């Protein structure tokens, strides 16, 4: 296999505590190795003097695959008409789409930005096989999916029946059966209310037919993930998303993390795309930012991590979420296209095209919230940059978000163009903080690797790590990134060099080779006794609830193109 | 003798499906079914028909036997889906890609001429070869095996609870399948293509696999704009390879939704949709509408799975109200609580009136599309007060009149109903994996079907890149047909173009399209001999098992297409 | 402005597959030498060829810089050649025969005349200019593209078709005029938000479906109208854009299901059995 030496790069690697040193990095058999192990005369030697070297980027929340992503593509042919890049055979397939890109565009654009691992954050169990088909088809990156559990009738039945041990066993089985990586809660409990009654829920409302509240549900599932000892515990999209005043619900949700009984390592709860659930005020007209309050709770609550869901202004987006009741509400604002899918007995989803406008009061507040949270958070290890692609913006705009975080000037330049009345009600203009490239490397590499429990071989450049390496054409020793933020946008938009599993896939910002990454999934260990008991329950539940056979539901390992099984030692008895 | 004007409707029937799967499309029994015209007894009397009539449409005349049936309204005739019906259908697609399969105006004349035979029909269409080398796979008893949770590769219901019993390579029992499913499994060995063929000096000659593949690759690599068509009766893994092939040769790849639920897909592109998977229907639906679909005949198990079955909150048939809206009193209508007979091709008027009733807008006309105004208000009230309503709709809505705009309006109706209650809809997809063909096409190209790669990136333009338009107007110069039979389903002019261009057929059974083939490559039957994933009509993907091995020397679609891609790449100098 | 120069493109052989000839437009020709024009890229199916391969190109050594001074004449008839006049802003294209899809796609000005028939999407998304077809036109004349919002179709300018037109004439159009001298297919003017469509003879099913604004005039037999159009008035003699119909029309407003305020005017005598009832409603008031 290819041996590569990346010479003279300015290396930033927070997990190895390297804050910017000129170093050489050696690659052999897809891994980073000690320089001594590579024969320089036989290796490809690339001199990257004056450029930054980081580990491949990791995105913890981006809707890149699955039934709703595909329905988004179906619903938005107009998104494809002017966004095509022809194929270059034999090494590059055709790309199309901005907010609903095809699999090739997804893989290639992430690679061009130097991202090498992306998590699809919501897949309905019964259609997860579909999600895997798409993940298999996405080139360049490693990937994983989080499975939706909050409105799953089987688990709700078990909670109602008070069978906590079986519930844990069921989630363990579900992760393995669907080949997914973590449990996702979307507007907890709401899809049950939506499918049965056509409405949503707040955190202390009672779920129809089940009689307990989303708050209790979050706690139960949180406790169970502790028992399962899975690396990424619960991934929560809060109730009342998209409603003015919902920041209170978010604060309450964050507080539940304190109640979760902790037995394992790692953060107890991840709150996702917090911008959408950070609204103060009692109507759209009086909307204010709840960013400060949320950042305060984050700083005080050590069990929580957040990602932004940063709004990108003046770009079309396609909102798609398993929060079906919210999409129905949004459809009333746009009155154009709305797709809803009630998915078996385990989830629902909605899709509505939208556009955030810089002149809009509401959209400006939304834009400010994400940045406020990010800039007021003290610990970059617990805050992640996302646009909840394609909900708040397409992922290809991450470099813009980077610029807003590292440069006050970048924010000021954008603030000139937005709704000024809205700005007056936000604290963003008064915030001076500027992140460094080191912080950025934490937020996009080191911290996500840790959050996903993959810090052994992802997110750093130490010996033994996967050779996912990116070189950006910028030298922070020479360029003042705070002033010259456009250089940062340019450099991060198109990486100068990307190595994936030891192969060069991007040079000078362009794809030079199509490769396919792995799909990570969790296989929690289960005591045989419990497994036996569970299988009886499953058979009965499937016969009653599902319209597929239990056997059809289970995804076999050979259906995943390049599976990467991570087993965990559980506390199940 | 004077001609009488009739409206021609076509559609699936149970016996058409059964004979197609058991005896094959070249059999007398299949042809007899698809060449029999159903006519209202009073029309038969009025015309003075003895046992046959001659039907004309766009100058084509065919003679066929008549069967009296009070299921068809006066002034209309019904011919099951097949080559005869399609001979009469006009190739124009209204820019939507789907011909007006239903509500075609035809002229009917009493006749005593010889009944048109299948070979007459094929000759009329310009078939290249009429020899049929279909063989039955020799069966040998042997090891007995039982398979559970087998999925059925026939219709979009993709039942995955069949129990199949196998004796050697003989399938002896199918428990749980509908009549068509049983016919399909138990006769899987019949009318097979067991060797590759090439047309040489005007007749088909058996050749080895490599030779046939080489020739197929040559045809594709040397054509400027080939059409790759079919794909709804194979697995998504094969669909993905077929799309890659289209990208390499810069041709068009289309699947059969182009002639069935294409308009549905186009309507979703315009307004979205409100779909569900089966379980919410089972557990919650109390109002179930079948609109322009004869589910009981075309989707044998649909009713028992979802309507009569017991769900958590709905205890079977008695907890549900069944409404059937159709142009004729189908077998599905026989089991309905409310049957609404709508004038053929006028569904959009009825949908619009229902939307008006919901919005409290006055309906001025006392009848709409043949339905009294009061009945429309009643229907709107039933919909509005449902706890969980669902509309299953079929080709009766997609193939007539306003086509995609019918569906667009139904989707809007359902979206508007959600202001009042929970309401969803779902297209009754015909082929077992047509949904999967759409899905794979979407994730690879961004478009559900009719994807053109002539510019090196995907494009889809209904009416331009759709298979029927391309063939009817002679816009393509080669065709690769995979697991599909356009000769049995496309209008005459489209089929005629297949006689003028090189055609490659990849199929398990000897289809009518084989009569137009220059290269024939045998394939294993997906879901019986080959594994792979199919998507149920509601988008639930199921990995299909195999219960027997493919015939000796016969490969599965994925393998065949992967080999073909390699060969085409080599010819085009595109080795990676 | 100088005297226009003419480039004549003589078709060498009839292509067997669809051809994308979007570089055939005065804007592309402007300021180019004839040898450059001959080398313009044309796609024959998925294969690249050139204008010079497909046509014999006759014209001056160099085209003027202003597209308005360029006439392009295409001789030879084929329904395969598509996208002629793509985004043209001025000048004139004359096609002496049939042409394919997307003629005058996104056109911004100038004139296209076709002495034959064209296929689908004539004048699709056109912003301005004039198109005249002496034969028939296919479906979706002056339309938007699939999946776009209503109003994303033709914006300004005029399309005159001397023969018949297909279905969905003016789909999603927002301005301009389309005149069909003979009859049109189903769904004339669906989702239109403005502009005028005049069909002098008959039309198919349901003109004006989901129209929000604009005006549709149908001078012959209509195969069906939607119940969501409310009858407004009886017009004994109709004038529209300088055309006069010396017969009575019934005028409807709709489409009510989308809260539309468009006018749909249908010849009364030709559709007496369909419209008699509606006329009685106007008379009662």
Class based on secondary structure composition and strand pairing of chain C: mainly beta
Largest sheet of chain A: 9 strands, mixed
Mean pLDDT of chain C: 96
Strand content of chain A: 15-25%
What assembly state would you assign to the polypeptide chains in this entry? heterotrimer
> Radius of gyration of chain A over alpha carbons?
23 Å
Shape label of chain A? globular
Domains of chain C, number:
1
Order of helices and strands of chain C: EEHHEEHEEEEEEEEEEEEEEEEEH
State the end-to-end CA separation of chain A. Answer: 44 Å
Q: What proportion of the residues of chain C form beta strands (DSSP E)? A: 25-35%
Which stretches of chain C are low in confidence, meaning pLDDT under 50 for 5 or more residues running? none
Strand order, largest beta sheet of chain C? 5-1-6-8-9-10-11-12-13-15-21-20-17
Number of helices of chain A: 18
Q: Which bin fits the share of residues in helices of chain C?
A: under 10%
Tally of individual helices of chain C: 4
- Name the poorly predicted regions of chain A: none
Main sheet of chain C, how many strands, which sense, barrel? Answer: 13 strands, mixed
In total, the number of strands of chain A is: 24
EC number (chain C): 1.2.7.12
GO biological process, one term (chain C): methanogenesis, from carbon dioxide
Catalytic activity (chain C): N-formylmethanofuran + 2 oxidized [2Fe-2S]-[ferredoxin] + H2O = methanofuran + 2 reduced [2Fe-2S]-[ferredoxin] + CO2 + H(+)
InterPro entries (chain C): Formylmethanofuran_DH_suC, Glu_synth_asu_C_sf
What does this entry look like structurally?
Chain A has 573 residues and is α/β, with parallel strands linked by helices. Chain A is built from 18 helices and 24 strands. In chain A, the strands form five sheets. In chain A, strands 1, 2, 3, 4, 5, 19, 20, 21 and 22 form a nine-stranded mixed sheet that branches. In chain A, strands 6-7-8-9-10-11-14-18 form an eight-stranded parallel sheet. In chain A, helix 8 runs parallel beside helix 9 (291-300) and helix 9 runs parallel beside helix 11. The longest helix of chain A has 18 residues, at 528-545. The mean pLDDT of chain A is 95. With 576 residues, chain B is an alpha/beta fold. Chain B folds into three domains: 4-125, Barwin-like endoglucanases (Beta Barrel); 197-260 and 432-526 and 555-571, 3-Layer(aba) Sandwich (Rossmann fold), CATH 3.40.50; 262-427, Dimethylsulfoxide Reductase, domain 2. Chain B is built from 22 helices and 27 strands. In chain B, the strands form six sheets. An eight-stranded mixed sheet of chain B has the order 11-10-25-24-23-12-13-22. Chain B has a six-stranded mixed β-barrel with strand order 1-5-2-4-3-6. In chain B, strands 17-16-15-20-21 form a five-stranded parallel sheet. In chain B, helix 14 crosses helix 15 (373-384). Chain B is globular. The mean pLDDT of chain B is 93. Chain C is mainly beta and 285 residues long. Chain C has one domain (5-221). In chain C, the strands form four sheets. In chain C, strands 5-1-6-8-9-10-11-12-13-15-21-20-17 form a 13-stranded mixed sheet. The longest helix of chain C is centred in the C-terminal third of the chain and has 13 residues, at 272-284. Chain C starts with a strand and ends with a helix. The mean pLDDT of chain C is 96. Chains A and B meet through helix 1, helix 3, helix 6, strand 16 and helix 18 of A and helix 8, helix 9, strand 14, helix 10 and helix 18 of B. Strand 16 (338-343) of chain A pairs parallel with strand 14 of chain B.
């Amino acid at each position: 296999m290819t041996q590569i030496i990346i010479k003279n790069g300015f290396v930033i690697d927070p997990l190895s505590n390297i804050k910017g040193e000129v170093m050489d990095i050696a690659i052999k058999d897809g891994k980073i190795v000690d320089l001594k192990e590579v024969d320089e005369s036989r290796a490809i030697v690339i001199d990257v003097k004056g450029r930054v070297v980081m580990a491949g980027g990791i995105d913890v929340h981006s809707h890149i695959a699955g039934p709703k992503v595909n329905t988004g593509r179906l619903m938005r042919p107009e998104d494809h008409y002017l966004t095509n890049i022809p194929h270059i055979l034999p090494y590059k397939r055709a790309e199309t789409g901005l907010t609903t890109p095809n699999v090739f565009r997804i893989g290639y654009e992430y690679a061009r930005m130097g991202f090498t691992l992306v998590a699809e954050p919501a897949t309905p169990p019964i259609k997860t096989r579909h999600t895997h088909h798409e993940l298999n088809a996405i080139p360049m990156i490693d990937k994983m999916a989080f499975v939706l559990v909050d409105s799953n009738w089987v688990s709700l039945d078990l909670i109602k029946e008070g069978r906590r041990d079986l519930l844990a066993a069921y989630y363990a089985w579900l992760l393995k059966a669907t080949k997914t990586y973590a449990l996702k809660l979307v507007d907890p409990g709401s899809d049950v209310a939506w499918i049965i009654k056509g409405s949503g829920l707040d955190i202390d409302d009672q779920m129809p037919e089940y009689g307990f509240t989303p708050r209790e549900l979050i706690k139960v599932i949180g406790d169970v993930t502790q028992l399962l000892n899975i690396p990424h515990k619960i991934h929560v999209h809060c109730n009342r998303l998209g409603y003015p005043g919902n920041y209170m619900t978010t604060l309450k949700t964050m507080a539940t993390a304190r109640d979760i009984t902790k037995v394992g390592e790692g953060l107890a709860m991840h709150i996702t795309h917090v911008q959408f659930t950070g609204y103060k005020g009692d109507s759209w007209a009086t909307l204010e930012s709840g960013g400060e309050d949320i950042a305060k709770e984050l700083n005080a609550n050590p069990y929580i991590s957040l990602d932004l869901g940063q709004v990108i202004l003046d770009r079309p987006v396609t909102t798609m979420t398993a929060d079906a009741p919210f999409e129905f509400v949004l459809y009333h604002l746009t009155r154009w296209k709305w797709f809803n899918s009630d998915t078996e007995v385990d989830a629902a989803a909605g899709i509505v095209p939208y556009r955030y406008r810089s002149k809009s009061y509401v959209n400006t507040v939304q834009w400010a919230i994400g940045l406020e949270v990010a800039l007021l958070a003290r610990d970059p290890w617990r805050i992640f940059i996302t646009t909840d692609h394609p909900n708040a913006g397409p992922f290809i705009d991450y470099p813009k978000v980077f610029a807003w975080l590292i440069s006050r000037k970048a924010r000021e330049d954008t603030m000139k163009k937005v709704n000024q009345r809205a700005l007056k009600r936000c604290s963003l203009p008064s915030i001076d903080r500027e992140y460094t490239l080191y912080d950025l490397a934490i937020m996009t590499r080191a911290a996500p690797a840790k959050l996903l429990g993959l810090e052994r071989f992802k997110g750093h450049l130490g010996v033994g790590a996967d050779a996912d390496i990116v070189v950006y054409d910028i030298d922070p020793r020479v360029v003042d990134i705070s002033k010259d933020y456009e250089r940062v946008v340019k450099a991060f938009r198109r990486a100068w060099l990307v190595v994936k599993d030891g192969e060069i896939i991007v040079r000078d910002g362009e794809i030079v080779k199509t490769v396919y990454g792995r799909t990570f999934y969790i296989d929690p260990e289960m005591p045989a006794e419990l497994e036996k008991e569970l299988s009886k329950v499953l058979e009965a539940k499937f016969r009653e609830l599902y319209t597929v056979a239990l056997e059809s539901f289970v995804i076999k390992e050979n259906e995943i193109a390049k599976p990467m099984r991570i087993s965990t030692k559980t506390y199940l008895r | 003798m004077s001609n009488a004007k009739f409206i021609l409707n076509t559609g699936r029937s149970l016996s058409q499906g059964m004979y197609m799967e058991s005896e094959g499309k070249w059999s007398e029994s299949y042809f007899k079914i698809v060449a029999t015209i159903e006519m209202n007894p009073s029309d038969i009397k009025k015309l003075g028909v003895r046992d046959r009539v001659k039907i004309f449409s766009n100058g084509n005349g065919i003679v066929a036997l008549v069967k009296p049936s009070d299921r068809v309204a006066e002034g209309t005739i019904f011919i099951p889906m097949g080559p005869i019906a399609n001979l009469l259908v006009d190739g124009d697609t209204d820019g939507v890609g789907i011909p007006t399969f239903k509500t075609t105006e035809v002229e009917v004349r009493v006749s005593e001429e010889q009944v048109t035979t299948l070979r007459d029909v094929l000759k009329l269409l310009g078939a290249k070869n009429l020899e049929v080398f279909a063989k039955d796979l020799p069966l040998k008893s042997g090891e007995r095996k039982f398979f559970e949770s087998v999925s059925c590769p026939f219709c979009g219901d993709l039942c995955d609870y069949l129990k199949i019993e196998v004796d050697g390579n003989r399938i002896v029992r199918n428990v749980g399948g509908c009549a068509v499913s049983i016919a399909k499994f138990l006769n899987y060995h019949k009318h097979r293509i067991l060797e590759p063929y090439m047309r040489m000096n005007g007749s088909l000659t058996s050749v080895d696999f490599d030779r046939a593949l080489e020739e197929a690759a040559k045809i594709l690599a040397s054509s400027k704009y080939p059409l790759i068509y079919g794909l709804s009766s194979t697995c998504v893994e094969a669909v993905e390879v077929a799309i890659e092939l289209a990208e390499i040769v810069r041709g068009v790849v289309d699947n059969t939704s182009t002639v069935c639920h294409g308009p549905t897909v186009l309507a979703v592109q315009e307004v979205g949709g409100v779909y569900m998977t089966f379980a919410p229907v089972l557990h919650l639906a109390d109002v179930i509408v079948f609109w322009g679909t004869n589910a009981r005949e075309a989707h044998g198990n649909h009713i028992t799975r979802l309507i009569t079955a017991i769900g958590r909150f709905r205890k079977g048939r008695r907890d549900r109200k069944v409404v059937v809206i159709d142009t004729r009193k189908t077998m599905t209508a026989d089991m309905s609580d409310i049957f609404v007979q709508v004038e053929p091709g006028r569904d959009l008027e009825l949908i619009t009136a229902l939307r008006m009733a919901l919005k409290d807008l006055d309906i001025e006309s006392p009848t709409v599309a043949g339905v009294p105004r009061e009945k429309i208000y009643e229907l709107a009230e039933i919909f509005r007060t449902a706890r969980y309503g669902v509309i299953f709709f079929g080709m009766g809505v997609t193939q007539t009149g306003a086509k995609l705009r019918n569906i667009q309006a139904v989707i809007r109706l359902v979206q508007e109903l959600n202001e009042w209650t929970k309401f969803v809809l779902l297209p009754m997809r015909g082929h077992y994996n047509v949904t999967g063909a759409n899905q794979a096409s979407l994730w690879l190209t961004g478009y559900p079907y009719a994807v053109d790669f002539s510019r090196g990136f995907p494009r889809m333009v209904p009416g331009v890149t759709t298979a029927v338009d391309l063939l009817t107007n002679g816009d393509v110069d080669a065709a690769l047909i995979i697991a599909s039979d356009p000769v049995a389903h496309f209008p005459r002019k489209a089929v005629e173009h297949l006689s003028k261009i090189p055609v490659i057929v990849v199929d398990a059974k000897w289809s009518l399209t084989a009569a137009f083939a220059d290269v024939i490559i045998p394939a294993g039957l997906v879901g019986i001999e080959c594994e792979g994933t199919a998507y149920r009509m509601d988008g639930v993907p199921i990995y299909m098992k195999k219960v027997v091995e493919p015939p000796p020397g016969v490969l599965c679609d994925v393998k065949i297409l992967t080999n073909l891609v390699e060969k085409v790449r080599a010819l085009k100098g595109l080795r990676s | 402005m100088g005297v226009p120069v003419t480039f004549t493109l003589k078709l060498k052989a009839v292509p067997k597959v669809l051809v994308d000839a979007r570089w055939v437009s005065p804007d592309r020709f402007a300021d180019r030498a004839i040898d450059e024009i001959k080398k313009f890229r044309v796609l024959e199916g998925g294969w690249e060829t050139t204008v010079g391969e497909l046509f014999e190109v006759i014209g001056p050594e160099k085209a003027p810089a202003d597209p308005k001074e360029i006439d392009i004449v295409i001789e030879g008839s084929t329904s395969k050649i598509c996208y002629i006049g793509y985004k043209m802003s001025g000048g004139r294209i004359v096609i002496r025969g049939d042409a394919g899809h997307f003629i005058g796609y996104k056109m911004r000005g100038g004139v296209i005349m076709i002495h034959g028939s064209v296929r689908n999407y004539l004048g699709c998304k056109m912003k301005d200019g004039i198109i005249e077809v002496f034969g028939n036109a296919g479906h979706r004349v002056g339309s938007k593209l699939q999946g776009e919002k209503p109003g994303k179709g033709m914006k300004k300018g005029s399309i005159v078709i001397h023969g018949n037109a297909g279905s969905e004439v003016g789909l999603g159009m927002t301005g301009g005029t389309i005149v069909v001298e003979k009859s049109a297919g189903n769904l004339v003017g669906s989702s239109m938000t403005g502009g005028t469509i005049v069909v002098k003879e008959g039309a198919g099913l349901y003109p004006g479906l989901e129209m929000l604004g604009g005006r549709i005039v149908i001078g012959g037999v209509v195969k069906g109208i939607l119940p969501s159009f409310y009858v407004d008035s009886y017009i004994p003699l109709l004038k529209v854009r300088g055309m006069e119909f010396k017969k009575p029309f019934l005028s409807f407003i709709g489409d009510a299901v989308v809260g539309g305020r468009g006018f749909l005017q249908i010849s009364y005598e030709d559709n007496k059995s369909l419209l008699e009832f509606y006329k009685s409603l106007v008379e009662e008031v």
